[in-house]
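Troubleshooting entry. Yesterday's outputs looked truncated, so today I'm pasting the complete records for two proteins to confirm everything comes through intact. If either block looks cut off, that's the bug. Protein one:
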Amino acid sequence: MDRIAALFFAFLHVILTLNSAASVKAADFYYENAVYREEIKSVQLYRDGNELSNPVIELGSDAALVLKFDDLAEDAKNFSYTVVHCDANWNESFIQQNEYLSGFHDNPLSDNAMSFNTTVRYVNYQLRIPNEDCSPKLSGNYALVVFEDNDRENLVLIQRFYVVEPLVRIEGLVKKATFDPFNGENQEVDFKIVNEKLRLLNPREDIKVVLMQNRRWDNAVLNLKPSFVRDNVLDYDYDKENVFPGGNEFRYFDIRTKRYNGENVEDIKFIRPYYHVKLLNDAVRSNKKYGSYKEMNGNFVVESQDRVTDYDTECDYMFVHFYLPLGSNLAGGSVNVFGALTGWNANKTNEMKWSFENSGYELTLLLKQGYYNYQYVYVPSGAKKADSANLEGSFFITENEYQIFAYYRDQAARYDRLVGFVTVNSAVKN
């Protein structure tokens, strides 16, 4: 084993040690998107046919969700999965699995294939939900839990998805914040829920809403009550409670080919036995003017422009090197690479290290060939919310997507039904 390969496996060992404490019994925490092993890569869950879609399907429809991920291993493992119904806050619902699932509770994850002609060997796993072995019977939040050796405590990953029964209509609008003390940095999301089917005895309590920006949970607005209730309309017209920093457009890079440098790539080198990608030097954007361009709101796609027939098993992995010049270390918190490529989480696996020698923050991630969006965020020590404004800037004209979920639970119910969902884009003016 040469020196680079030894460093690669040493890197995996360190991260696995850091993450081992996270492999606890699923019932001990609320369900969130999480990967519990460093060798698990490129996790995606989306509506079949659209790799960039939110994992939302309608109850009783023919639509399906697709889960994909890679395991950096030589052979397939004994992975299984289960599906858990959750309330609006992602705690497990007080109902039995046979009440919300048709089929079997635990099922083998048997659809797998070895990588072909790649420098990094991996096993690609795929799953469709619903399927003949497992199908949700109720609307609501669901957690897809993958584990190993038929042991639910031996967690591999968790991914959230949604099943909606569209009983209400949601109408939303994104605009510049009404009271913006920061001179045009924030966006306000006003919306209405039009109800013509549900019997709401106490509309302020029977309906719960969750408002998210670009599918992020860390800065989601929860427990927002209607400001007005008129006839069959619940109006959420606030000036402060529904305000988000506009942020900036996501940065991007293209590593769909190994033959030449893609967008925002300075150099691709094969340093035996792996490929290394050096991105163009980034810069702090909080002191720069806003620039408009098209991006994917933090998402990524696995693709190749090389001669391959199957992206899932023939796209290679590369070490991607990020560098953010900064004259001094930011005290009191961490700087992280953030977006779907890091699971919308800011933790040790994507925390950058400040280099005195190079006067900036550095991070190396092992990523599959594709097209990626990302941002740099600052996370104060002990905080759960990532802040992009300090490093990226914030503008009310930034294009963002907002997801609005409406949940219903009457006094006799034991679970939250998801009765409405809509995505509102800040670039679309009504």
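Protein two, checking that the full record survives here as well:
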Amino acid sequence: MRIAVISITENGFKISCKISESLEDTFLLKQYSYKSKSENVTGFESVSELINNIFDIYDGIIFICSVGIAVRAVASHIKSKLTDPAVIVIDDSGRFAISLLSGHIGGANELTHIIAEKIGALPIITTATDSRGKFSPDTFAKSNGLYINDMNIAKMIASEVIKDKKIGLYCEYEVKNIPKELLACSKESNLKYGICISEKLKKPFEITLNLIPQKFVIGTGCRKNISPDLFEDYILKMLRKNNISLNEIYCISTVDIKKDEQAIIKFSRKYHILFKTYTVDELLMLDGNFSASDFVRNHIGVDNVCERSAVMGGNMLRIKKQAENGITFALAEREINIDFERKSI
């Protein structure tokens, strides 16, 4: 998860440093501070201009300032709960951490809890299911790599949960920790509302929320500063060639040397696909028959990036290395198992 941490005051910058130091092993963080000249920190003159430049390239944005400043900065960029980054606001004294935008699918609620624990702040969560400690279908779907086929039905399910109505569950995979709000069903049920976890759009309930497993992982590598349009066109072409939908993609992965490659970042943000990176040592630990390249080994330190990173994120390599115009592509399939207590971050 790529996160921008924005501070305005001197005290806010101290909190920003504390957040960055405590989370640097978990997330890819970039600090922005008002008129800063500190090493490894990017200065800025205008919050609104900064957000214009970074809103679409980060998975999360943490403001250390007033809620009003944050709201005005992001207001014109807000599009959809499916696409907007997680936005969190922390006051200048570090007393409160507020989940402001994209609490469920964007992961702001979970990230708020993590940050609050690290800096000793009080987490403020206002989404109805979370504030009442109840099951949230969109949070669950994201945590388990499931594509939500109909957001309107997801909202209906959440509304029924808040009313303490029982929700049916039909699942074709191994499942753990089913919450009390759900009732497991092995076939069609007389329950009005229910969730179906299957590759096919089955309707075991009168009103069924279909959650489709995102079972594929893209492994990739590319020439430095490759054109984002060229990269996007090639990845989409390979998916079409293999009759795979973007909705079936769980993540896109590569070596951590490419963590700032704009073509991959923009692709993952545009299509709302998780972006994962692995160290050379992690990739080297994999056993298997990979397409070796002396050129890649000499320049990066590992004989293959795309196949190894695909298998790191998945389990079974389905499409071996393909290459064109300085871009490589491989595809792995991951094992699907469902855990209602799994976290997305």
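Both blocks look complete. Sanity check on protein two: The two ends are 8 Å apart (CA to CA).
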